[in-house]
Every structure is written in structure tokens, then in C-alpha cells.
Specification:
single chain; mainly beta; Methylamine Dehydrogenase, Chain H; four-stranded antiparallel β-sheet
């Protein structure tokens, strides 16, 4: 991951998250801009957490078991939760994990219904804006 100053187009920070085979898939910044949550492509399905103030990886969290692969994720508006999708081998089914960003723990996971694998997710308010 790289932080780039828009005005100067200079790289101001680099933080390694994952590897060539398990690099970032999607990134989400908490509203206070102190934590960057990264869904990673590798196995097992994992989220990474970056401290943007100290520009360092502060931890990773496997969100599903062996033979799963990370995919896309979305953060709630308040930055408290991430809903992250994962695959379970090419012919298997995956699911969705709910992660508490503040404690960096998996709260719940749901298997994808029926056959297939999720590839994308969105979060919206209970009541649409007027």
C-alpha cells in the first residue's frame, strides 16, 4: 500500500500488506482516517489493518477457514464493522464474515446460500435518505 500526496504526486509512505499472491483486493478507511482495512486475495481469507498515523501494519485477521480466499468487502458508515466476502475453492461456496473493526474480531459468518460464490457486497442504511 502506498500513500500519495495528491498535490506533489510523491509517495509519502509505503506499508506492506500481504504478498504478491495475497495482495489487497479492496480498501476501506475508517471515518476518523486512523485505520485502513484491507481485504486480501490470498488464502485463508484475511483482512489486514493499517495504522495510518504510524504508517504500519497493526495486524491481520483470518475471516474464514482453510482453503478460503479473500474477496471484496465494505465498511459501515460509522466505521465499526466490515462485511467481507470470501470464496471456498473454485468449485465450492463462500460466504460473508462480519468483522468488528475496533476489536478486530469476527462476529459472525454466513455461508453463501445455494451454490456459487459471492463477489461483491454493499452496505446501506436501514432507512433510505430523504
Amino acid at each position: 500500500m502506498r500513500r500519495i500526496d495528491i498535490a506533489t504526486q510523491a509517495v509519502t509512505a509505503t506499508v506492506t500488506v500481504g504478498s504478491v499472491l495475497s495482495g489487497p483486493e479492496s480498501i476501506m478507511l475508517t471515518p476518523n482516517e486512523r485505520t485502513l482495512v484491507v481485504s486480501m486475495r490470498g488464502t485463508p481469507a484475511t483482512l489486514g489493518f493499517v495504522d495510518t498515523v504510524h504508517e504500519a501494519l497493526i495486524g491481520t485477521l483470518p475471516i474464514a477457514g482453510a482453503n478460503t480466499f479473500g474477496d471484496l468487502a465494505v465498511m459501515t458508515n460509522n466505521g465499526h464493522y466490515v462485511f467481507a466476502t470470501f470464496d471456498n475453492l473454485a468449485a465450492g461456496t463462500g460466504g460473508v464474515a462480519v468483522v468488528d473493526v475496533r476489536t478486530r474480531t469476527v462476529l459472525r459468518a454466513w455461508p453463501y446460500p445455494g451454490t456459487g460464490r459471492p463477489h461483491g457486497i454493499w452496505h446501506s442504511r436501514k432507512k433510505p435518505r430523504s
